[in-house]
Amino acid sequence: xxxxxxxxxxxxxxxxxxxxxxxxxxxxxxxxxxxxxxxxxxxxxxxxxxxxxxxxxxxxxxxxxxxxxxxxxxxxxxxxxxxxxxxxxxxxxxxxxxxxxxxxxxxxxxxxxxxxxxxxxxxxxxxxxxxxxxxxxxxxxxxxxxxxxxxxxxxxxxxxxxxxxxxxxxxxxxxxxxxxxxxxxxxxxxxxxxxxxxxxxxxxxxxxxxxxxxxxxxxx
Length: 220
Prior knowledge:
Number of strands: 0
Structural class: mainly alpha
Shape: elongated
Oligomer: single chain
Number of domains: 2
Number of helices: 6
Radius of gyration: 24 Å
Helix content: over 70%
Distance between the termini: 63 Å
Order of helices and strands: HHHHHH
Strand content: under 5%
């Protein structure tokens, strides 16, 4: 009889869990379709959720910039309190950035499933004219989706430099709770403000693109 080590058993169990997770997506969509909620509906709902997360992110990064400004303009000597407030804003920014990324991932997941299904179902048509019409609609819908997703991903990427600058300065303030640290933050403020302005512009573009895509999906 073959002896299995604990490591072998754990590896097999881990592999089984991964397979189970990988196979959960299609059953979910299938179950939703049985109650009348189709991939198209789920896609629109997830685009709306991603758009809402981006709107929340705009507000959070604006709040963080305001807090940063209040710290660099600090006249009181309670630098520990200033650090705590700035660190809280940074952590909130990280959380909302993760939320935006997760919701974009969900949009991609359902969109891939929808377009794959649509492509497969076109092959089932016997009426060639209907098949051509459906294929044309698929091509147009996919093109609008790719454009919208590109705007979403640009907005997502624009959060990275803001978070890097923010993290560096929060750490520097943590390690140097003195007036010199505040002076260094003052030098960084203009750069952070510029990156947040870029971020807000990218997110506005993504939000507008999302709204247009949602409108098209609801009327087509």
